[in-house]
Fold each of these.
Amino acid sequence: MSFSSLGLSDAIVRAVTETGYTTPTPIQQQAIPAVLNGGDLLAGAQTGTGKTAGFTLPILHRLSTDANGAAITSNTTARPIRALILTPTRELAAQVEESVRTYGKYTKLNSTVIFGGVGINPQIKQLKHGVDILVATPGRLLDHMEQRTVNLSKVEILILDEADRMLDMGFIRDIKKVLAALPPKRQNLLFSATFSDEIKALADGLLNKPATIEVARRNSTVEVIAQKIHPVDRDKKHPMLAHLIKANDWHQVLVFTRTKHGANKLVEQLGHDGIGAMAIHGNKSQSARTKALSEFKDNKLQVLVATDIAARGIDIDQLPHVVNYDLPNIPEDYVHRIGRTGRAGATGEAVSLVCVDEHEMLKDIEKLIKQTLPREVIPGFEPDLNARPQPVQLRSGGPGHRNGGGRNGGGGQARAKTGGGGGGNKPRAPGAPAGGGNGGGPRSGNSAPRSAAQHRSGGRGR
Ligand code: AMP
């Protein structure tokens, strides 16, 4: 199957072909015709499936062609926003808008992205100039709405991307305010990795007789990824990581730590070993995060150290190595982390440095993925088998910190929480459900415990 056989215009097919993609992914095969039809869509797909092009391509087609499919060539002067794409994080917003630009380069459409943490004035200027497709995070979009610097009254297509994450991050009220500012007659597309009751409720209120499609998670069997556990003493993790990077000559290594402090410390330690590393997490400025990410993507930075929330939605083609420096305390996060390697059929490697404190977490992960991961002791780093476990620090801040950062702050662009906290911060008993999980992993919708998200979305002010 080709992109042109899906009914996309020549201008769009040409742009896709230039990116090197010849065959639509399963989500694209299903979503593109459904969106071209003009109806609403409920799509179950996570990052890595090709979902971005799945909605970007058909909306570009719809906005750039007339009812007969002919290209619209005239450029009207007044350009109202015709498509609005909401995403949970700045990084994802930037990536989505980049896709819109790439795939829309042979159309007359223009786009812009707005998110918090950066100056609002350049965004106001952009919006004034006229924009066909706006990609935004909910908090900053509301700022613009309050300042009346954005006009959403002509929106024809609304896309909620990673809707489950937006809900997990407490954006439901913001989303509802945005919905209230849109014209009632429009096309709505909702993309979500999971279908919780909250998502179903949102979909019920938003979508009109939607086409429903669901594709398997890209790494549902986690087969393309070689996974390994390196048992190690807690104070030997850093020398072990430096050893692995140097001995194997690893480049482009994405390393996950549980805490922001842990990320900073590791960057410093690797620096002393002569290994170039930068951290991205909620306490870093947006410009520092953008710089780190782009250097890493361009292969100029050897190691990127990230916390789970900062890494959300980051899409790096063919990332060869993911290292769990600390295991995540929410098992679903493990799948989400390692899903960043081995994309689109490329082989990837995910190694986890596991000390005695993390054995229970490892058990929970193995239970979730229904696999026992191979253990490989690295000579020179044999763990002390008599070591006793200690409680681990789960993250840097207090309750709700995982989602912290507020509207213009860091974190994952979540609004500041006042009533949250939920179950995310406490160590769990082995096998206990992961409350507050926002990993977006392989949860099967309803069965996933959502206590923190539910807690947060109720009764909280802005
Ligand atoms: P997404 O799920 O939108 O985050 O996309 C995941 C990755 O798949 C991105 O790096 C895309 O560039 C890539 N991609 C999108 N469409 C295709 C395709 N048809 N064939 C191969 N890779 C693709």
Note: The first strand starts at residue 41 and ends at 44.
Amino acid sequence: MADIVFRNVTKRYGNTIAVDDASFTVNDNEFFCFFGPPLSGKSTILRLVLGLESPDAGEILIGGRPVNAVSPAERNVAMVFQNLALFPHMSALDNVRFPLVERGVAELQIKKRVADVAAKLHIGHILHKPPAQLSGGERQRVAIARALVRDPNAYLMDDPISALDARLREETRVELKRIQRELGKTLIYVTHDQEEAMSIADRIAILDNGKIRQIGAPAEIYDRPASTYVARLLGSPVMNILKSARGVGGIEAAEGTIRIADKAAPVDAVEIGLRPEDIKVRPWADGGQGRPARVFEVEPLGGYTVVTLAAGQARLKALLRGQPDIRPDAMVAISCEPARVHYFGQSGGALAR
Ligand code: ADP
């Protein structure tokens, strides 16, 4: 068992609170992701798990054992640093063996671990080659094998694929997810890329200035963000957030930009959030089912199209399927199903409808 638990952990550097009263449980075998802007405390949390830093307050447990006073070596948690690059002068095999050789592991044990990892990563047939003779994808798999060849209680990864180009990043994250599932290991992963966090994690913790703002499965956080802060972090384009007030028959947002006929809308809502994919856009000529808006910009992206709309006092982004016949300056009618609307109160917290 290698669940990792933080109980009210705080870490300060001088006047900076890097981690602020953080409590969470990473379950055994879970792919757990920390996501937040730069300097929000992600790396500090990893260093606290590793034992490279000790908390000023609170308790850390690994596999049920309190580890505040336990050395990094004894915690048996493996850190995979940012760079997954290979040593160019060594064969793939020697690259994979390296972390075990370095630790003085017995040869028999090394052979067994390497064979095991090579089988899981499907790289047995290329291990004799030097990195220069491998394709980009093969090099990544070898690098992941080297990162995973030790058999620790848990792996920690700090933005491990951010240096790769976009296509390789997409391939590698799929691979990482599959490997983690097969290895059945606890993995704590840090990224600053929201799409990566959404696609790869079983659960995500959202950080803001050292505070954990929300923890949940990607779909749960996306569908039910706990605050405007979280709502704005996930999704592309980001959620439209508009000032709102109660009007006749429901909610009026941004002085009439859009009307939501929702009798169940919470009375203390001061803002509403509309995901771009939830905004319905129809030609105005169809009888004006909704509020009028002018098309400001159209971005056709192949499978979908982002339309920026100027409506009332606001700019909105809508995400439409395919490549609809919409031109800049056209008049359209916009609306949104009440059930798809997010409501937020005075302090930015989500409100139940
Ligand atoms: P992230 O990984 O999300 O970018 P960090 O955990 O690196 O965030 O940093 C969190 C906060 O702690 C930041 O304000 C950063 O400046 C501060 N910090 C991190 N490490 C140190 C350190 N060794 N000394 C002083 N301040 C630090």
Note: The CA atoms of residues 123 and 142 lie 7 Å apart.
